[in-house]
Specification:
25% of the residues lie in helices and 31% in strands. An 11-stranded mixed β-sheet has the order 13-7-8-6-3-14-15-2-16-1-31, sandwiched between helices. A 6-stranded mixed β-sheet has the order 17-18-19-20-21-22, with helices on both faces. The longest helix is centred in the middle third of the chain and has 23 residues, at 409-431. The protein is globular. The chain binds S-adenosylmethionine.
Length: 692
């Protein structure tokens, strides 16, 4: 680099005045000679390498045989009930895929992935539609209720779209870099997008995967979308970019049936020239072709019957991708899995899979879907794999507070402290608690109870609550409230029972979204609701036990009757949730208000429930990578919920059984766990003891 004296003088002047350098200096000052590159505000090549432990919270394996003897484990891959005991277990992971990808790449699970031959295919369909958020339409009888997104989901949404395309690109750039590093050398990636972000995505994929590894720009054309009217042409296609990791990816030819058979003269290559083949009389030979090799324009209808998720994609589309770029038994992934379309197709095509999503509702939808697939394959006498639901364990401070990663360390620490303080003050004010100092885990006090506030954009983990209990014991504190936006799945009621045994009354409460509503805080209107409540009854008969669900309550609030009454116009209605009831508030044409409770029965709140007939038979062990590539296995003190029987509603079938099958078991005392997932996608568990 040779700069003129004038250029050096100008640059020095800009720097001394603390002004940004004009664009032209980028090409003079830096060694990188990329001719075309996409830059955006905050672009950095830094990629996170955080490793957090994965915790298995549930194991789902539809038994292939109905009886449970569990006395002997077979030498093969299944136990006596036909449940998988060896080999790869598919993984459905709840959490932010940045932390998931980095923990997969750098943590102990990487070895397991490599032992399966590596990750051969990734399909992702990131939230590229700015308008589609995390709110969900939920059916209550004949009405549709729109559940607002959870706070964690909303924060993620803000991270993705808060600064428009800039923040979307920054979000996807880091994740795509992590995905490239995870892919096997013969692996491929397919990224789904549309006109909103396709031009950016093509450029950053060129940069991350290399232009030479570009394979296709697939046009997915659908003509079953409603015409939008207006002067412009209807936008009836999405784009899917495919890139390979290196130069020899898995490629399988896809053969499709032609719309119309075509007749063509038979041709062959002779000495590099293509010529017609002729019969003995010298006539051309005509052949009718009914099949063709698939090209890069795919016509697949978009309409899905019984749609379970707003952005769900058709299985036919994903099937083509999986068939083209993977083989039987290969491991494939979707890190924005939504309703689990990729996972369902992977299972049906005999592939192993890893799926992840940030939304609890998405994980729950995928769980139901995969149980459905297991049941379907079982009925057809085909094989299927067990799957487990995981979340990320321990969290570090800066991950939950949303600190700008490009700041220098000292600035970062300052920003963490500032944001933490403001967040805590807000929550304590809304909870009407006063702040306390000098504790590690407690932040406030309300009457005789101490208050611990969970992290802002991550769920409260068992580790967090363990620390709270430890500090209670050390300071002889017997009453404590833990406030959180989300709790790790399967955390309660076990943790409360444990605390009770130690003499601590531990209450877990959800922080509602309206803590961010200044007026609600000022008017003391913010209600922190308890976690849900379950009642069950065991029916023991000889060697078998069945479980009946007898009661379930939730305490949610979303909007309020008073607000709906004040704001809706005559002739309109609105659904609100108050104290765990969904209420339709309507005004007739004269302004007369009517309130109808839609959740009349407690069962209306239940979307799904499942039973583990021998809870505490499988310990939850986390694997933690120690310094010198050594891996330590540590029991978290919790157990994995083994999903042995379940009943759930789908869009097609709204019925729910309230009593499980009679499950045969061995004699003795045992614990049974019952898990309920409500229509908002939140789960609660209840553990009971029985004697057989
Ligand atoms: C367009 S949808 C995927 C739909 C999916 N292809 C299907 O067929 O159901 C995008 C998904 O990405 C998830 N998501 C958004 N940001 C995420 C993040 N940071 N980590 C994991 N999942 C995320 C959303 O919850 C949403 O379910």
């Amino acid at each position: 680099m040779k700069l003129t004296d004038n250029e050096i003088r100008d640059i020095t002047k800009y720097l001394e005045e603390g002004k940004p350098l004009p664009d032209m200096y980028r090409f003079l000052l830096f060694g990188d000679k990329r001719e075309v590159e996409l830059v955006w505000n905050g672009k950095t090549n830094e990629v996170t390498n955080v490793v957090l432990p994965f915790q298995v919270i549930e194991h789902v394996d539809e038994p292939r045989a109905e009886k449970d003897t569990r006395i002997q484990t077979s030498l093969f891959d299944f136990d006596n009930r036909g449940r998988q005991v060896k080999g790869w277990t598919n993984k459905l992971i709840w959490g932010d895929n940045k932390l998931i990808l980095s923990s997969l790449k750098n943590g102990p699970l990487r070895e397991e992935i490599e032992a399966q031959g590596g990750l051969k295919l990734i399909y992702i369909d990131p939230p590229f539609d700015v308008g589609a958020d995390f709110s969900m339409d939920i059916e209550i009888g004949d009405e549709q209720f729109t559940k607002q997104p959870g706070v964690l989901e909303e924060l993620a949404y803000r991270d993705t779209w808060g600064k428009g395309a800039d923040s979307f690109i920054a979000m996807i750039y880091e994740r795509l870099s992590l995905m490239r590093d995870l892919l096997a050398d013969d692996g491929s990636i397919y990224v789904h997008c549309d006109w909103r972000v396709n031009s950016y995505l093509h450029l950053i994929m060129d940069e991350i995967f290399g232009k030479d590894n570009f394979k296709n720009e697939i046009i997915w054309h659908y003509d079953d979308k409603f015409a939008t009217g207006g002067n412009v042409l209807d936008r009836n296609h999405d784009v899917i970019y495919s890139f390979s990791k290196a130069d020899k990816p898995i490629v399988n030819k896809i053969i499709l049936e032609k719309d119309e058979p075509t007749r063509r003269a038979l041709r062959k290559k002779v000495d590099g020239k293509t010529i017609d083949v002729r019969d003995e009389q010298g006539n051309k030979i005509w052949v009718t072709y009914t099949e063709k090799k698939a090209d890069d324009v795919w016509r697949i209808p978009r309409t899905i019957q019984n749609l379970e998720y707003p952005t769900q994609k058709p299985e036919k589309l994903i099937e083509r991708i999986i068939l083209a770029s993977s083989n039987q038994n290969d491991l494939i992934s979707d890190f924005f899995c939504g309703s689990g379309t990729t996972l369902a197709v992977a299972e049906k095509l005999g592939r192993k899979w890893i799926g992840s999503d940030l939304g609890k509702f998405a994980i729950h939808t995928s769980r139901k879907r995969m149980i459905g697939v297991q049941r379907e394959l079982k009925k057809e006498g085909k094989n299927y794999r067990a799957f487990e639901i995981l979340n990320l364990g321990k969290y570090e401070r800066q991950h939950y507070i949303g600190v700008n990663p490009s700041l220098r360390e000292k600035e970062k620490q300052k920003q963490i402290a500032r944001k933490e303080k403001a967040f805590l003050e807000l929550i304590l004010r809304a909870y009407r608690a006063e702040g306390v100092e000098g504790f590690k885990t407690f932040h406030g006090k309300k009457s005789a109870r101490l208050v611990a506030v969970g992290p802002i954009n991550l769920p409260v983990t068992r580790l967090f609550v363990d620390e709270v209990i430890k500090e209670c014991l050390a300071n002889k504190i017997s009453k404590v409230d833990v406030l959180a936006f989300e709790f790790e799945m399967g955390l309660f009621p076990n943790i409360q029972e444990e605390a009770k045994k130690k003499g601590i009354d531990l209450a877990l409460k959800y922080i509602p979204r309206d803590v961010f509503d200044k007026r609600a805080v000022e008017k003391n209107q913010v209600v922190f609701h308890d976690v849900s409540y379950i009642e069950v009854k065991p029916h023991v008969k000889g060697n078998s036990v069945a479980v009946e669900l007898t009661d379930f309550s939730v305490y949610y609030n979303q909007d309020s009757i008073a607000n709906a009454e004040a704001t809706i116009k005559n002739g309109k209605s609105k659904l609100v949730v108050e104290n765990g009831k969904i209420i339709k508030v309507s005004k007739d044409k004269d302004g007369i208000v009517r309130r109808d409770i839609l959740t009349k029965k407690w069962t209306d709140w239940i979307d799904y429930w499942a039973v583990d007939f021998d809870f505490e038979s499988k310990k939850e062990v986390v694997r933690i990578k120690k310094d010198k590539a050594e891996i330590e296995e540590r029991w978290t003190g919790d157990y994995i919920f083994e999903n042995e029987w379940q009943s759930f509603r789908t869009k097609k079938d709204r019925t729910l059984e309230l009593k499980s099958i009679a499950h045969e078991c061995t004699k003795g005392r045992r614990k049974i766990a019952v898990k309920v997932v409500d229509i908002f996608g939140n789960d609660t568990m209840k553990v009971i003891r029985i004697q057989i």
